[in-house]
Automatic annotation (TrEMBL):
Residues 168-187 have a biased composition (Pro residues). InterPro entries: GrpE, GrpE_head. Keywords: Chaperone, Coiled coil. Residues 189-204 have a biased composition (Basic residues). GO terms for molecular function: adenyl-nucleotide exchange factor activity; protein homodimerization activity; protein-folding chaperone binding. Pfam families: GrpE. Residues 34-61 form a coiled coil. Signal peptide: none annotated. It comes from the Bacteria. Residues 1-32, 166-204 are annotated as: Disordered. The lineage of its organism: Bacteria, Bacillati, Actinomycetota, Actinomycetes, Kitasatosporales. This is Nucleotide exchange factor GrpE.
Length: 204
């Protein structure tokens, strides 16, 4: 018995496979966005590497400061009770050297002191902790930085604690320290001369 075949069956047997869909070509806007993201990623990577180098350089500078201070301690201990150099002078010299080295490395890392002395106090970068009368300088002039303020990459890293001038007579200078008084020297004991009668008695 022959089974009739419908035209739709014939067409399904001999029809060719449908072609696969190809991805749509990227638009100019997509290309631009991809380039922007790539550029930003590269810039962030450069900043990260630069920050790591700066941090490493700063840490190495702090190690140099530690070396200077440790050398001062060793030299003080090695001299013992008879130091070749007075201890206060030695410490002053070593501390000064450590401070200079530290400041150099801070500058290399983009950290710099504000140096406000002589200028007018600015509230956004300094905090007034004391006021002193002065007749020769304008009011609010910074006379002293009790705590140094610092910038980091031109932004405030730490505010300065300052002493400023206010109108008024200059304070009296501190009196000069009095020289140390020496202990009074006891008077020399004078030998008493013996009378002639006593000298005769001793000879007898």
């Amino acid at each position: 018995m022959t089974v009739p075949v419908s035209p739709s069956d014939h067409s399904s047997e001999h029809s060719s496979p449908e072609p696969e869909e190809t991805p749509a070509a990227s638009s100019p806007e997509q290309d631009r966005r991809i380039k922007q993201l790539t550029f930003r990623a590269q810039a962030l990577e450069k900043k990260r590497l630069a920050a790591e180098r700066t941090l490493r350089s700063l840490l190495e500078g702090l190690l140099e400061v530690d070396d200077i201070l440790a050398d001062a301690v060793r030299r003080t201990e090695a001299d013992g009770p008879n130091p070749t150099q007075p201890v206060p002078e030695l410490l002053e010299e070593q501390i000064g050297a450590a401070h200079r080295v530290l400041r150099q490395h801070l500058l290399a890392a983009g950290v710099e002191p504000m140096d406000l002395v002589g200028g007018k106090a600015v509230p956004s970068i300094s905090h007034v902790v004391a006021r002193e009368p002065r007749s020769s300088v304008p009011a609010d002039t910074v006379l002293e930085e009790r705590v140094t303020g610092f910038y980091a990459d031109h932004e405030v890293l730490r505010e300065a604690l300052v002493v400023v001038a206010v109108p008024g007579p200059d304070p009296e200078p501190d009196p000069a320290p009095e020289p140390p008084t020496k202990a009074p020297v006891p008077p020399r004991r004078q030998l008493r001369r013996l009378t002639r009668s006593r000298r005769r008695n001793r000879r007898a």
